[in-house]
Amino acid sequence: MAEHIVENSGQEDKADTPLVNAPPGLLKTIKIIDTVSIWTGKFVAVWIFPMVGSLVYEVIARYFFNSPTIWANDVTTILYGAFFMLGSAYTLQRQQHIRTDWLYEKWSTRTKGIVDSVLYISCYFPGLSIFLWFSSQYAWKSTMLQERIISSPWMPYIWPLKLAIPLGTFLLLMQGISELIKCLYAAYSGFDIHDKVEAVET
Hints:
The chain is mostly helical. It has one domain (25-95, 107-201). The protein is built from 8 helices and no strands. It has helices at 17-20, 24-45, 48-63, 72-86, 88-93, 109-144, 159-189, 194-197. The protein is elongated, with a radius of gyration of 22 Å. The relative contact order is 0.16.
């Protein structure tokens, strides 16, 4: 990727030139982190099928056969919670988190990079680091106790879902490193490499 040059009448594509000149180590770090987030997201995405399947089964069993289940609601809740937490890093990598950009979109690439870098360093990493610390203790205690949902007659294990909280937070922190590198590069060069490196998914 770093050596990619578009040949057009013997000239380089000027839009790709900053990427060509980017340090190989920088691009490699981004690629490794993004790849982890992408494959985690794809793995978790498959869980949508058993989640929807349990809902469909419950609706059919309840309304067509008057035989509601005691497990469908719990399965749906657990899968959705894990789906939400573990898929958040992939969402960040794809730049799909909600952003109020009525002002942001008017800024230059360099200004966006500077502001994003400051926010990642001052808010994102400190906040998620604290959350990781407390959620890890929370999940560890639940795992050691083999905690179940006592409000459910089925009483399924709930500790795997609680374990997904610090795991998802860790993945977010890791993806945040990739995003911070991209933002710092934008602040330094005035060039946004988000679109250039996201081809790693394909």
